[in-house]
Amino acid sequence: TTARQDVLSSAGLRDANPFEFGAGHIVPNSAVDPGLVYDVSDDEYDALACGVASPAVSSERCDALATAGYSFDAADMNQPAISVADLVNTRTVQRRVTNVSDNSGVYAASIVAPQDVAVTVVPSSLSLGPGESASFDVTMTFLGGGPLDLWRFGSLTWTSEDQDVYSPIAVKPASILAPAQITTSGGTGTFSFPVEFGYSGAYTPRVHGLNPATIWDPDGPSGDPDGITFVDNDPTKTFSFRDTNGVTQHPIPVAAGQLYVRFSLFDALTDGDDDLDMYVYYCGADGLSCRQIGQSGGPTSEEEFNVFRPAAGWYAVLVHGFETDEVAGGPGANYQLLAWSMGEVDDVGNMSANGPAFVSPGTTADVTVDFSGLLSNTIYLGAISHVTPDGSAGLTIIRIGN
């Protein structure tokens, strides 16, 4: 909050932006006496973890935080920086500051608004004694104009006689705001979800899938309907790219033209109380040059990794027996690795979606999805892409278990 912003890009040819320098360059003498600080509690960090579905925080803990009124939205974290990734109309975030100086102070809000965005702060003035805290609301409203789906920057500064307390603002006016994933169940059904619109023009919800899970053995798609694979316990708890000593490797081909790929492990699909981790590599068209592109390593076997618009070629999914129990004959674990893929063009006829044909800024409308003919004991994955006159502006994953 005491940084300076007269910073150039690494090439030195232009002014940098907050995605390059954060709040700015440190000014140590000012940082010793910042005036106001933004404290963050353990509860707020846990609420953020709940919002990103981190396995490090239990569902019971998340339920308790929700009951206590904590927001799981990353934009509501009590950080000095204010960032809203999908502003289609109006969004309000709350922040809390504490006076850590030895003196009372009156602080007035000064705004540099991002282009075509109105920013208001309520209250616009704070009077705080030493150790006192106060909350305030920052409301951002997209006024229209300029390109959508690009970031714009501004700032909020609380100014007193002695200090300037600076916060960067980053806002991305968006074409649409829709749920990232909808999860439901059944072989036949209907559901709806809301979509907010930030533009004027035609709109189409495009269907991809629904596709059933494929169970993968190390040698390919499982010929066994149960698809059981075994991984040894790794007493060293140390992962490396290998196919032995507590690591089992699954080579999986992905065809060209795919929109989305998901690899998953589930607690319910292991033989006991196991902690399996998953590492994902892209190995190229020949399957020989592997580089890690991600991992999922929570404290249970609930692991998931997604690839949006994956490159065609071979992927290696490595399952690590980080810690296994002795159910089913000794150390190690029997498990199933599930994978889904859906194409850019992939309407298989078991799902349809309907929404408004024409939309306008600041409006919200429902997209209604119908599905049918799903087999039992199967998890299906599909998606609805949200198509605007400028192309696809978002994706809602649809997961249905039957």
Keywords:
402 residues, mainly beta, five-stranded mixed sheet, 31 strands
Describe it.
This protein starts with 17 loop residues before the first helix and ends with a strand. With 402 residues, it is mainly beta. Strand 30 and strand 31 form a beta hairpin. The protein has helices at 18-21, 28-31, 42-51, 59-67, and strands spanning 36-37, 82-87, 90-99, 105-112, 117-122, 125-128, 133-142, 152-159, 164-173, 176-177, 181-185, 189-197, 201-202, 204-212, 214-217, 220-221, 229-231, 247-254, 258-265, 275-282, 291-296, 303-308, 313-323, 333-335, 338-343, 346-347, 351-354, 358-359, 363-371, 379-388, 391-401. The protein is built from four helices and 31 strands.
What's the structural blueprint in terms of helices and strands?
Elements: H1 18-21, H2 28-31, E1 36-37, H3 42-51, H4 59-67, E2 82-87, E3 90-99, E4 105-112, E5 117-122, E6 125-128, E7 133-142, E8 152-159, E9 164-173, E10 176-177, E11 181-185, E12 189-197, E13 201-202, E14 204-212, E15 214-217, E16 220-221, E17 229-231, E18 247-254, E19 258-265, E20 275-282, E21 291-296, E22 303-308, E23 313-323, E24 333-335, E25 338-343, E26 346-347, E27 351-354, E28 358-359, E29 363-371, E30 379-388, E31 391-401
Parallel strand pairs: 2-9, 11-31, 14-26
Antiparallel strand pairs: 1-3, 3-7, 4-6, 4-8, 5-7, 8-9, 10-12, 12-29, 13-28, 14-30, 15-16, 15-25, 17-24, 18-23, 19-22, 19-25, 20-21, 20-23, 27-29, 30-31
Helix pairs in contact: 3-4
